[in-house]
Amino acid sequence: MECCRRAAPGTPLLVLAFLLLSSRTARSEEDREGLWDAWGPWSECSRTCGGGASYSLRRCLSSKSCEGRNIRYRTCSNVDCPPEAGDFRAQQCSAHNDVKYHGQLYEWLPVSNDPDNPCSLKCQAKGTSLVVELAPKVLDGTRCYTESLDMCISGLCQIVGCDHQLGSTVKEDNCGVCNGDGSTCRLVRGQYKSQLSASKSDDTVVAIPYGSRHIRLVLKGPDHLYLETKTLQGTKGENSLSSTGIFLVDNSTVDFQKLPDKEILRMTGPLTADFIIKIHDLGPADSTVQFIFYQPIIHRWRETDFFPCSATCGGGYQLTSAECYDLRSNRVVADQYCHYYPENVKPKPKLQECNLDPCPASDGYKQIMPYDLYHPLPRWEATPWTACSSSCGGGIQSRAVSCVEEDIQGHVTSVEEWKCMYTPKMPVVQPCNIFDCPKWLAQEWSPCTVTCGQGLRYRVVLCIDHRGMHTGGCSAKTKPHIKEECIIPTPCYKPREKLPIEAKLPWFKQAQELEEGAAVSEEPSFIPEAWSACTVTCGVGTQVRIIRCQVLLPFSQSVADLPADECEGPKPASQRACYAGPCNGETPEFNPDNGDGLLGGLQDLDELYDWEYEGFTKCSESCGGGVQEAVVSCLNKQTRELADENLCVTSRRPPQLLKSCNLDPCPASHLLSREMNEVVVLADELCHHPKPSTVQACNRFNCPPAWYPAQWQLCSRTCGGGIQKRDVLCKQRMADGSFLELPETFCSASKPTSHQGCKKDDCPSEWLLSEWSECSVSCGEGTQTRSAICQRVLKTGVSTVVNSTLCPPLPFSSSIRPCMLATCARPGRPSTKHSPHIAAARNIYIQTRRQRKLHFVVGGFAYLLPKTTVVLRCPTRRFRKPLITWEKDGQHSISSAHVTVAPFGYLKIHRLKPSDAGIYTCSAGPAREQFVIKLIGGNRKLVARPLSLWSEEEEALQVRKTNPKEALQTHKHQNGIFSNGSKAEKRGLTADPGNRYDDIVSRLLEQGGWPGELLASWEVQDSAERNASSEEDPNAEQALLHLPFTMVAEQKRLDDILRNLSQQPEELRDLYSKHLVAQLAQDIFRSHLENQDLLPKPSEQRFPPMAVPAHKHVSGFSSSLRSSSGEAGGGSRRPHRKPAILRKISAAQQLSASEVVTHLGQTVALASGTLSVLLHCEAVGNPRPTIHWTRNGEAVQFSDRILLQPDDSLQILAPVEADVGFYTCNATNALGYDSVSIAVTLAGKPLVKTSRMTVLNTEKPTVTVDIGGTVRTVRGVNVTINCQVAGVPEAEVTWFRNKSKLGSSHHLHEGSSHHLHEGSLLLTDVSFSDQGLYSCRAANLHGEQTESTQLLILDPPQVPTQLEDIRALLLATGPNLPSVLMSPLGTQLVLDPGNSALLGCPIKGHPTPNITWFQNGQPIATAPGLTHHIWGAGQILRVANLSGGPQGEFSCLAQNEAGTLLQKASLVIQDYWWSVDRLATCSASCGNRGIHQPRLRCLLNTTEVDPEHCTGKPRPAVQPVACNRRDCPSRWMVTSWSACTRSCGGGVQTRRVTCQKLKASGISTPVSNDMCSQLAKRPVDTQACNQQLCVEWAFSSWGQCNGPCIGPRLAVQHRQVFCQTRDGITLPSEQCSALPRPVSTQNCWSEACSVHWRVSLWTLCTATCGNYGFQSRRVECVHVRTNKAVPEHLCSWGPRPANWQRCNVTPCENTECRDTTRYCEKVRQLKLCQLGQFRSRCCGTCGKA
Questions:
Q1: Contacts of 268 (CB under 8 A, 6+ apart)
Q2: Domains annotated on the chain, with CATH
Q3: Which residues on neighbouring strands pair with residue 109, listed in sequence order?
Q4: pLDDT tens digits, one per residue of 760-800
Q5: Per-residue pLDDT tens for 1541-1567?
């Protein structure tokens, strides 16, 4: 066919219009897309193998933003990398090996399969647990997960299908085929049960062939699995599976788990060899093995290439076929191999056109190929349909369909079906006559023929066909009856009529006619027409009818009349009698069946016989109510005897008569069914009989495979039209009730749907928010906005924009938010001052009296009464107040009826209720401040917060938001005196930071911390408010006036109390806390009075005296509390207690004071004017403790300038710089000691308390040291390094590790972390990665000081888990020497004498342990006569030239600072030697030849071994000893048997038997046979021999010479060869196998093989020139003599000559218009000249046409 044609006139205009329209459309699309430029070229692939990524870019040509992305990706380099290339992620990690991390080089290994961020480069330092993210993104093309093709692109994990395409979800099927349907493999599953015997300890479980996948075996029982393999090259292997692990067996990965009660074997596959799973018997019990795997179908159909074209030019066709291919051997095999698998469907042939070029201009023609263009293609041809198998109701008819081919002469021949498979095969079966068969249709019943008593009624029954017409063809057997009896309940009072009144016309006539009608069928039958009218109007007359012989023609559904002799069977009557009613009132009896009309005799019978009731039947139920039926009998009225029922008139039979019976209730039974037609269920115990079984087995056979759908999953959407899925599995229900899951191809029925739509209703309207805009400023503080549209998702899944009033109100903060960029630099002012700042107030508020409204500033804590309105302000600087946001317990707060969030930076809570308690957070950009609100109940107790308002997640959130230092301090306080032991308070860092001051406030409220009169007035507060007119104490009223509405204290004051309490001994905390709380209450109240100018004079105070400090300081109150009066006296009566130093908080020190007095725990700063320093130290204890002072760890040297006062205080006069340091007060008695330090600094310079000692720890779980020394400790302990600093102002402490600054809390490595708390550094669970130099730097305005501690981690000597290194060292030291590894339990090595041996001492530890060798407990150097060498840093001991005997025990002792480890091994020198045992048994019991031969044994350590081991050892000389030298008793002597008398068929052989006696001298003499007969039975002297049959080969005569021809006149002839006896009895051929077998075939001369190939002359060439000329000739096999054609197979012994060849292969010179084929006239007749390919071949003829 031509690929293009010339356009018709007018086409250019159409094309131009189309191009213009296309350009407009394209331009509008470009406008919508934002005018993108064309995509650029693809970049280089990110990888050269293993699957990488390449990208392409485009740019936006519009000034507006363009829709869509400017980058696209595709996969590339999807070829496997060579094995030596390594993992791509590992290459990226190793690139960081030469980059120091925290000052140290590591070898980095990849960390794969991170579920949180698989596309970040996380690596682990080799040999440690340190995991670090070295880069936020891996290189493009890196696999997201090790077992997935998904790849990381630009830091995001992109889905990649098995077709290596981005975004593709195509996956491999169970057979490993990408996007396969699972048809190339089959599921194999089964169970094996061991039946091993004593003689057979191994058995084969299953053979799993090459290429199988997803193998899983589970063994349950005592036996053991092992593997045997065989590769395709024939190499065999075995794996014993001795331990759990992952092995590589013949390049297949095997995952084996050995559990106590079972073994599990998994192999993902595909297997690279045949695996034979075997079982080894290890126990008495049987084992079972369940296995499942997918086995590849190794024989599959493979489509062939196209066969040669049917024509060489001018257009032909060609087809493909399919061949069966063996995947293992890579060769084509017979088709039956592929037919074995039902999953294999042979592909249908494909047809395509070929050689479409026109043939050369010549008169040649292509006729050598088997197909030709000028005759039709092979086609399907069908025979006519057969007759329908059924005339109605649906039948089938069939026909034959074959593939035929028509040659150029028009001859049609059948060919192979595959030649026609390019078109669908016509159906061979079709349904026919699918209309319904005729059916009986009954009309309604007529009225009863009588008005009283018993009568008859009739109905019309019609045969109706599928068209609704009355016709024949219905079965007479299924016809409903047309007559039945009827009873009128009205009694008859007139004489009984002899016969019931029959139906009047037309009922009787019509029913009788229809009843006698016959159906027309496909067989000729007599069909009667309707009866004529009766010949008389009364009395008896006659009726006649016409009888026709008819047949039903099925193809036309019409009826044809036939001659009467065509119908078989009796012809129905054509005349009968009729009765038209009585004449003149007579009532004669009439029998319609009596055609003669003779009625005599009936009257007599009627008079003699009649029906009567005779009793009732047995009751149908024994209880509970049943029924009885009356028995109707035919009786002789004269004799009253039973008569035959035929003698009574049937129409007179009385109606059925029933009555009830046995109405008494039944006893209790399981089911009761009686009068009420109900079922009453009773208790099972009330039934006497055994209860029948309610369950029985049925249908105990496997069900056919069927689809089993699971429950529908949840809808993918809650509204707007979603999808829900379910699993639909093909399963087979087994006979035992279990289910077997099968591949889907096993279920023939159509698969139920696994997807369906759901939630097809509209969604509620909701806001759709855009992305946040860019910040409104380029630096500093700005805002971001975003737009919102109200949309609704309809039930169709389409989103539509709706009116914004339909969406809920949108909070202001949802559309605008603050943003902070880098601070804007301004000349002369630090940029940090421009960040937002919240002016917080760090106060504690306690409400004591009811107030309507209270105002607070964020930053503090408030303990308030319910129903109080609270206004909370958030004063900010450098921040716009409308942008302030509020949170409560981490949740964003919005305005409501109860809480108002004002746009001016404050929050208002109306009338507090318990749910309002919590943590309120004000956010101004990055600045955040909190305010905690707690509620006070009516009993002055804090109201517990509702559980639902505080979850563990919120707790964790608040702790993270709180300063970790404060959290640690909170933890410390809660573990102190105020902790009540609850779980929440013992959780340490996770405790609620809002509970920090609850205990102090509770004490203030409950434990009388207020002045006494004040408390009394407080307690009557509520009653005073409830009843203002009640008579109360006027003093209390006055005190109530003095009580503040809300008491205020600074948080710092409460923090000092908590810190002070935490430093007190436990036994003093309760007492101390009472003092501190009481002092706090007095200070708060006094501060309030001072502020109000209401402080009464001392004489007017009704409160206890309070200590007033020298200056006014509301929240920094302090007081020197002395011991209580109880402690002042009565020392002997007090219980014994260890010393405790009272820790007190002094007033703030003034640097200008000339005399400084302070308590312990403070810092003293020496100024130029300081003349004296007095350090107080108060201690309690029983016995009274003694006090001594040290400075910087050394005892204080007292002098005239440094004095010890009588109260144990230390006074320093005229202090100088040498006096600077930490002074420690030590209190000691017999029960223990206590010490507290105080720092004295120079002009406030920082001071660090140091210790220069080295601490070694190998056992304790915790180590605490002061900074300045060295700590050597084992792993896993918690190390605390105290850095106690002093300075005024307070020095800031900074920690460094290896000169790198440490944060407040940080994970050093996996499992270890550090925490900073009040100047101390806590290292938890230290390991080698924690080693280093830790430095503490104290700095303030006056200077800085740095001290360091070196931390060294020790590892005690231990046996390493991996022994490959020392084994390699042993192999390198002595490749051929026997070696043994020492162990703590001891090992043993057995050696030959003179051998050398290597002993390895596997050890690891830090620092490297020192190894010492011993023999028998003595140092190896002092061992006598032992040649030894120590190599490998002491780990290898070589001992040489070991002599015989045990060498004793060798041991190696490894020791370092962390501990020691002793390992042992024993060397045993073995030797073989000969041993002479007792004499062996005498060789004879009598005669002169008996000797005792001494027995030699080869021994090894007293154990007998193979004598070969003693070869070369000197044998002991042994001499035989004579024994049993005496006369023997008489015995029979026999000679050898003679030769058999016959070689087959049974012969005889003989021997000589004599009785002889052997003397002690060795001479044997004959004696009488009787002497031997007394001792033993005489042996036989004759026996049969050669009993086997005599056989020979026999053969028949040669058959005719008619076998296959093998040459000219040469054929093959045969004869039979069989085995038989000499008697002619035929035997199996095996009986004659020992004899040479005669030949059964030979060559012979045959006239039939006198044949040869005969060829005709070549035809004319199809072309005179060119490359397409062919000629053919006839080739046939003919007989030489007759010259007639014979079958070609007779000539097959010779090569068949060619029947076609090319010709006239020369270039054509002229191109004139002429015909090149002789069929051009037919081309013109068929009007094919309009086709180009014919027009060119028949140029001349078509030109004339």
A1: 213, 214, 215, 253
A2: 52-158 (no CATH), 198-296 (2.60.120), 304-432 (no CATH), 438-497 (2.20.100), 520-533+544-584 (no CATH), 609-688 (2.20.100), 705-769+785-804 (no CATH), 840-947 (2.60.40.10), 1135-1243 (2.60.40.10), 1247-1354 (2.60.40.10), 1359-1470 (2.60.40.10), 1473-1522 (no CATH), 1531-1585 (2.20.100), 1591-1649 (no CATH)
A3: 124
A4: 888 888 888 888 888 888 787 788 888 888 888 888 878 88
A5: 888 888 999 999 999 888 888 888 898
